[in-house]
Amino acid sequence: AQGSVAQSCLAPTACAARLGALPFSAMGKLHTISRGYRSGTRNKFSKKFRTKGMPGVSRYLATFKRGDYVDIIVDSSVQKGMPFSFYHGRTGVVFNVNRNALGVEMTKIVGNRQLRKRIHVNIAHVRKSRCNEDFLRRVKENDRKKQDAKLLGTTAHVKRVPEGPKEMKIVKAAPEDVEVLTPLPFIENYF
Questions:
Q1: Count of helices and strands (H, E) across the chain
Q2: Which residues, at least 6 apart from 14, have a Cβ–Cβ distance to it below 8 Å?
Q3: Would you place residue 33 in the very low, low, confident or very high pLDDT band (cuts 50, 70, 90)?
Q4: Pair 61, 124: CB distance under 8 Å
């Protein structure tokens, strides 16, 4: 009886039907590769140690104006107005201010060109950027220098000058302090 089963099981579909199991082709797709809106953000959207939970009130009380530089940092505890994962960590310029959201404009490199992207983001996902702090500080200093120079009747030099090479110096030493580090000549020993 076993020999007859072995001979008749040459066709896999007939054998599977006889044994009560489905062949692999009839089972369909075994798993799907998920590519949802938040795919691949397990670490990117995770909150740091002891910062879990909803954001504080100060996050919502910050004032933003058009033209401000802002950093988009996604707060995963607030799902409303959450930007796509690509924009996490990007810096942009505010072009619109709404009741609960900000319009942020930034550039995105696609292929060989730069696109201007405009998105609206909830205030919980936006923080004031410090990218132009140094520039604004220099502007204030230069304005003050120009004002002082105008009072003195001179011209102010406000351009940044790169740091050049170090100044020349001569190292002096007594002859007995000089230690020669050249290797000793090789002398063959014939004994």
A1: 5, 5
A2: 8
A3: confident
A4: no
Residue for token digits 């230069």?
142
C-alpha 23/C-alpha 17 separation (Å) is 8
Collapse the DSSP code of 9 into the 3-class scheme (helix H, G, I; strand E, B; otherwise coil) and give the result.
Answer: coil
| Average pLDDT of span 58-82 | 97
Rounded to whole angstroms, the maximal C-alpha distance in the chain is 116
Q: Distance between CA 142 and CA 173 in Å, rounded? A: 46
- Kindly state the tokens that stand for 73: 């940092």
Sequence-distant (≥ 6) Cβ neighbours of residue 40 within 8 angstroms: 85
User: For residue 60, how many C-alpha atoms fall within 13 Å in the half-sphere facing its CB?
Assistant: 7
Do residues 71 and 90 make contact, with C-beta atoms less than 8 angstroms apart? yes
Would you say 121 and 102 are in contact if contact means Cβ atoms under 8 Å apart? yes
